[in-house]
Write a structure and sequence with these properties.
10 helices, alpha+beta, Rossmann fold, single chain, disordered N terminus, elongated, OB fold (Dihydrolipoamide Acetyltransferase, E2P), 5-stranded antiparallel beta sheet, 382 residues, disordered C terminus
Amino acid sequence: MSAVIQDNAPGKTLVSLRGLNKHYGDFTAVDNLDLDIQDGEFLTFLGSSGSGKSTTLSMLAGFETPSSGEILVDGQSLVQVPPHKRDIGMVFQRYSLFPHLNVRDNIAFPLTIRKLAAAETRKRVDAMLKLVQLEPFAHRKPSQMSGGQQQRVAIARALVYEPRILLMDEPLGALDKKLREDLQDELRQLHRRLGITIVYVTHDQEEAMRLSQRIAIFSHGKIVGLGTGYDLYQNPPNAFVASFLGNSNFLRITAQSNGAGTFEGQPLAIRLTPGLDAGSQALIMVRPEKALAMTLQQAAAEPLPAGWNEVSAKVGEVLFLGESQTCHVRTDGGTELTVKALSAAGMPMQPGETVKVRWAVADACIYTEWAESDLSKAAGAH
């Protein structure tokens, strides 16, 4: 496998999941799922526990058999193909290294069982040791290594037989935050160098954003959002995705006409939205960093610009978080909102103070359909 940096922008479809279902008795773990995975892309399955992401990965790996549906790689069905013949590498959260073997022999194991020639095995293992920067540790046992080093061994072992697809199920979940971030950076660089297809499972939204070219957000066995992290964050397709990916402010409004509505009796300007009729209910979603909190004195000195909204609220608390500050406020009608600003910009608010919260109409997404659970941080996923 070449260690030369490649241009691995996603191209043609490599993997197709069609009408994929997995039932355990009356429980549906994966519900009629369709997905195309591009050759060479880094795709992350993101969701809370029980959302179906790991079950989907296990069916792709061959550890679980679909109740119905199809798994195609290059147009060929894998459903009846055993795991060891799928040309797919797998890395788990538990490193699953052989404790009695040293690093070199752990990495060589997949080649040994495939009866590869000794010279070729040595060449590939040497290349993997260099790739994951473990050459000085080749003769150590797993017990003599840190968690991060052991996970690198597991990654090298999964890559050594040059699989076309690498599956990773919460591989960094057991590591501390700093080490996890370091390995995330290494994984991203590894993907760029090798150009293979990686499908990664995590419940950590920041990890998904940091690693992926695309993210598939799972909920109740379905994919409810699919796209780049930027697109999913800036224009979430539904209220669940808006709540799950990042922090969100939701305001319940009543449409007066298309382009206008009321929030707690106050008039608001809203985006033109198909199907939003007078009298119908809707949600406005505003990201905390897109909202602006101003003292009454500041608001009086700066008239509301065209294309902006403003509501009154009372400050609950202001939190200093290093590079940023967060202000929690409550409107007269009881709606809780969060405003975030860079610390350098200042936020001279005091608890109990009445403020004006402003946002641009163009920065607010509108949803005409939602479940109440969508508004509770995606059912506690965070």
